[in-house]
Amino acid sequence: MKKKLNVFTVSGLMTGPILGSGIIFLPSLAYDMLGEHAIIAWVMIMALNILFAYVFAKMTIIVSDNRGISSIVGDIFGSRFGTLAANYLTAAVFFGPVAVALTAAEFIQSAISSAYHVSSWVTAGGVLLICALIVISGVSFMGKFMLVLSSITACLLLAGSGATLFRLPDLTIPRSLPAPGALGHTLLLIFWAIVGWEILGNYVEDVENPKHTMMRAMQISLSAIILVYLLTAFAFQNSPSHSMPDLLIPVAGRFSGAVFSGLAAGLCICTVSTFTGAVVRQTTVRFENAGLPEIFHHKWLTALILLAVNGMVLFLHASGKLSFQSIVGIANTMFIGNAVLGLASGFKLIHHIVIRIGIGVLLLLLLSIFLFSSGFAMVLFLLVTFGSLIFNGRKYGG
């Protein structure tokens, strides 16, 4: 099979979803919590980002196929846990893309509301359909699309944030440490700025020379992500308006609001497409290993199945039976489960004491976030957990 992803297109796949909706909302959340001390939290979380990226990139280069990290989990802890990791990620993508699509819909509607009146759930459904088409179009197109969009976003945010800081008469730099409780809570909130590295392994079959490409692409993406988050967050907390769209005024002028809405919607599409594509590739391998009929070996079928499930979740939300917060909460608990199993595997594989201490810190953060899960999300999490462990992982291609 011809490999379709190189260093730059893999970088696009990494940067787009990891910046994702986080760069849109997290700087304001951090500032609301800590004020001028927010930049301290960002420096700390970006330090953890380096570790998170390194651990999962190192694991990705030894992944055997598009099952990704779940295959390593299965090798280390047994097939049942490999199946469990895969099921966590799949369950997360049943719900997570709906929340991100609804977020994208808000920005899209802000641009078209003057001309058309469209329900948010209809717009979100259109976003999900576009993302499914991007996934079906092939990984080469996905990589190029993500690379172009993430590059434009990074350049505009860096240029706008840099110009904003340059124009200010003076900058506010924290000269003391924030209250430990407020700092801890903020770190929990902005931890999601680093989630996404764990799905790299689900694209490994499409990557040229994974050992070289993944590590090089990780270094490029990580540098860009850290620079964008730190400069944008610092500019946000120093700008008089404390408004993300206003950071683009130096480069987009009176169109800054529209440009920001376009970038926000595009990043949401990147996030949904990349995570959906990861589960599509993982599930296709699992279907093949399970000996299912040939039709289940096609990625387009899995993409359509995921789209149908997302449509059902969206319908439940539109009918008032499932709140936005519930959708986010369910997805978060599943993503945490997948990340915890991946990090635990990394702890077993990587013997460097500093890396192991760092993994321990990450696991504690994830556990702290998990404790905030809703009762409904916890029930579904337990159902997925016990259901996966009861059935033989090998039987289902785990």
From TrEMBL:
Gene3D superfamilies: Amino acid/polyamine transporter I (1.20.1740.10). The chain crosses the membrane at residues 7-26, 38-57, 88-112, 118-139, 146-166, 186-205, 217-237, 257-280, 300-318, 324-347, 359-391. This is Amino acid permease. Signal peptide: none annotated. Coiled coil: none annotated. It is a multi-pass membrane protein. The keyword Cell membrane applies. PANTHER family: AMINO ACID TRANSPORTER, AMINO ACID TRANSPORTER-RELATED. Keywords: Cell membrane, Membrane, Transmembrane, Transmembrane helix. Its main location: membrane. It is found in: Cell membrane.
